[in-house]
Design goal:
single chain, 202 residues, alpha+beta, Jelly Rolls, 13% helix, binds N-(carboxycarbonyl)-S-(naphthalen-2-ylmethyl)-L-cysteine, binds fe (iii) ion
């Protein structure tokens, strides 16, 4: 029998329609023009991530040899991160009502062979607010388990327009992206996937 989803996990398939996805994509393009995608590396080892990243909002998540942390400036340009688009702030109000507005929006870009190993998101000072995730482009095979690395996991396909809300017990659940399913979306001309995660940090 399949394990239950962790408490507080909400999977909202096809929450954003095609027009909304296209609008969001244009907003992300303009953010990335000002705050280019960078390739983070693992703390200590310096091993590069296969995912490239950027951010918008007052705080942005970065990783380099010194560790994972939130910074108010882009690691390469030194500029403040662009603001979070109003469309994403409106989405947050809909799916995370009552929580103060997000301070960070991490933009993850996955090429055809990119993946993200099983991890917890615990670089924030507070875990009271959910994390809200938006997927754009090719479908990804997403895995989520429990709060211990060895807990059983279950898998979901995250398709373009899907939204996931990670609140309650699921906020500290281990999760990762096993792989993309190539050719599943026409949203991005050259394929690949963009994931946006909205977070409260302080
Ligand atoms: C479960 N991103 O940026 S989104 C990340 O598709 C991250 O790029 C993945 O994991 C991606 O940290 C997964 C779904 C997601 C996001 C945040 C979570 C699941 C989560 C935080 C806690 C638990
Ligand atoms: Fe994560």
């Amino acid at each position: 029998m399949a394990m239950a989803a962790p408490d507080g996990f909400r999977y909202l398939p096809d929450f954003i329609d095609r027009t909304g996805q296209q609008l969001l994509l244009e907003e992300i393009r303009s953010i990335v023009a000002a705050a280019p995608l960078f390739q983070p590396v693992m703390p200590r080892t310096g091993k590069p991530f296969s995912v490239r990243m950027s951010n918008c909002g007052p705080l942005g998540w970065v990783s380099d040899r010194d560790g994972y942390r939130y910074e108010n400036c882009h690691p390469e340009t030194g500029a403040l991160w662009p603001g979070i688009p109003g469309t994403l702030l409106e989405l947050w109000k809909k799916v995370a009502p009552g929580h103060p507005e997000p301070e960070a929006c991490l933009i993850n870009y996955y090429g055809p062979g990119s993946k993200m190993g099983l991890h917890q998101d615990r670089d924030e000072q507070t875990f009271g607010a959910p994390v809200v995730s938006v997927s754009l482009g090719d479908t990804a095979l997403f895995r989520i388990g429990g709060t211990k690395r060895t807990d059983p996991t279950r898998s979901f396909r995250l398709a373009s327009g899907d939204v996931v809300v990670l609140g309650g017990d699921s906020r500290l659940a281990y999760h990762g992206i096993d792989r993309l399913v190539a050719g599943t979306s026409t949203l991005l001309k050259n394929g690949g996937r963009i994931n946006l995660t909205l977070r409260r940090v302080t």
